[in-house]
Amino acid sequence: MNNFKLEALLNDFLSPQLINDYCPNGLQVEGKAEITKVITGVTACQALIDRAIAEHADAILVHHGFFWKGEPAEIRGMKYRRIKALIENGINLYAYHLPLDVHAEVGNNVQLAQRLGLDIVGGLEMGNPRSIAIYGELDTPLTGEEFAARIAMALQREPLHIGDNAPALIKKVGWCTGGGQDYIELAVQQGCDAFISGEVSERTTHIARELGIHYFAAGHHATERYGVKALGEWLAKEHGFAVEFIDINNPV
After folding, report:
1. 63 annotated to bind ligand
2. Which helix (H) or strand (E) holds 95?
3. Rounded Cα–Cα distance for residues 247 and 243 (Å)
4. CATH of segment(s) 103-222
5. 202 is in an annotated binding site
6. Where, by residue number, does a divalent metal cation 2 bind (predicted)?
7. 101 is in an annotated binding site
8. Fewer CB within 10 Å, N or C, the chain?
């Protein structure tokens, strides 16, 4: 498939034009015109680019790409080396950030819910049909320790659990993958017993303790591993691409 046609296909599926994001979504670095093999991964780091080169990929599809708002505009140093490697090897780079977080089928939030046994109810941002943070319910209430164990098993990573002054059992849960820790107060307002994000800030511990909610920091990378993987699987199943997901280890 032509590289611009693939961008149009992904844009049609993910609808990035409906979301105000911190980076450009879509084709960020142009490569060869025809694409058959795609490497997917969480972040367009040098290690992922090197693997794509070794695998003779035509394109890389990631959640975290380049050109974030507020970063230096100059292409030098680490950014130069990454972009140079892509251009020299004719590899297209596609990146979808918030559109991939909120997508109802392959989104990071939906994929996390599936792995944790959460039934999605709605968005934490009332009135926003594309709420970045969402909430749902467990079929069977769990203690904080039981839910922490479920998260650890699903993500292969021990979460940080703040449970001081929190309910004895967890039924209603809010979550936002990645750096969504500041949605915790919305979760409290919506009556959630627990809130999950990837990253944690120093202030988050105090908020959880003082507002009486279970809080779980499950890892930015770990909570956002599955959206881009699911998107790649969709490309392979529905459009015949050869797709390989490569998980570059990241403990954060």
Report:
1. yes
2. strand 92-95
3. 13
4. 3.40.1390.30
5. no
6. 64
7. yes
8. C
Helix (H) / strand (E) containing 185: helix 184-189
Average predicted confidence (pLDDT) for the chain: 97
Q: Rounded to two decimals, what is the model's pTM?
A: 0.96
Q: List where CATH 3.40.1390.30 sits in the chain.
A: 3-96, 103-222
* Dist CA 251 CA 72 (whole Å): 26
The CATH number, out of the four listed (3.40.50.80, 3.40.50.300, 3.40.1390.30, 3.30.565.10), of the domain defined by the range 3-96: 3.40.1390.30
Q: Which two tokens stand for residue 106?
A: 């392959």
Q: Which pLDDT does position 222 carry in this prediction? A: 98
Q: How far apart are CA 64 and CA 16, in angstroms?
A: 14
Write out pLDDT tens, residues 193-252: 999 999 999 999 999 999 999 999 999 999 999 999 999 999 999 999 999 999 999 999
User: How does residue 14 score in pLDDT terms, banded at 50, 70 and 90?
Assistant: very high
Tens-digit pLDDT profile for residues 127-151: 898 999 999 999 999 999 999 999 9
Burial of 246 per CB tally in 10 Å (0-12, 13-18, 19+) = middle
